[in-house]
Amino acid sequence: MLNLVLFGPPGAGKGTQSEKLIEKYQLVHISTGDLFRAHIKNQTPLGEQVSQLIAEGNLVPDSITIAMLEEEINKNPGAKGFIFDGFPRTVAQAEALDNFLATRGEQINTVLALDVSEEELTKRIAKRAEISGRADDAADKLKKRIEEYFSKTIHVLPYYEKSGKLHKVNGIGAIDTIFTELSSIVDGVVA
Ligand code: ADP
């Protein structure tokens, strides 16, 4: 199996690059943000539980997020591999993911971290807010999301650095240039 984590702050381009990686490597895409939005749209009990937190730009508690993620992995028994997008967002989530994969004799093969300055992120999301209709793209909510990233999520980087799995990639530039760089890292892991 090929299991990738695509890591980066809100607006780093994870969604765009995951689409391309999925196609190239035939992976199952697990985006916790997309999963939560689907629950909210379908008004499931989980969706009702998390909608306020997400709209305000807060992280959803680890226990809820981890349970949802494990359920999603279990739904795809035949997968060649997974691309995790927007997960893990805390060190506790990273540990839970490693433990869960280990019970199946699997592991994270590589972590691709998109590096984008805070200034560029704010610009990109302001633009996206005009079309996304996402309540959490509004300026004050975005500020909260970026804060959550720099206070909690950033600590996931040293966690993966220690195990030698972390690859940082410049997330500013042409989409295809960034994709070429990501692919060459993945090819290095697969080879
Ligand atoms: P972004 O576009 O900012 O990268 P996502 O679409 O990945 O955001 O997620 C949107 C929101 O869903 C987050 O701000 C957070 O509230 C919630 N969320 C998504 N993934 C996680 C996670 N792994 N842990 C906690 N909350 C999460």
From TrEMBL:
InterPro entries: Adenyl_kin_sub (IPR006259), Adenylat/UMP-CMP_kin (IPR000850), Adenylat_kinase_CS (IPR033690), P-loop_NTPase (IPR027417)
MF-aspect GO terms: AMP kinase activity; ATP binding
Keyword Nucleotide-binding part of the UniProt annotation: yes
CDD domains the record matches: ADK
Any one GO CC term of the record: cytoplasm
Chain positions recorded as ATP binding sites: 11-16, 128, 173
Keywords in alphabetical order: ATP-binding, Cytoplasm, Kinase, Nucleotide biosynthesis, Nucleotide-binding, Transferase
Gene3D superfamilies for the chain: P-loop containing nucleotide triphosphate hydrolases (3.40.50.300)
GO biological process, one term: AMP salvage
Main subcellular location of this protein, as a coarse class: cytoplasm
Comment block on domains: Consists of three domains, a large central CORE domain and two small peripheral domains, NMPbind and LID, which undergo movements during catalysis. The LID domain closes over the site of phosphoryl transfer upon ATP binding. Assembling and dissambling the active center during each catalytic cycle provides an effective means to prevent ATP hydrolysis.
Protein name: Adenylate kinase
Organism: Candidatus Sphingobacterium stercoripullorum
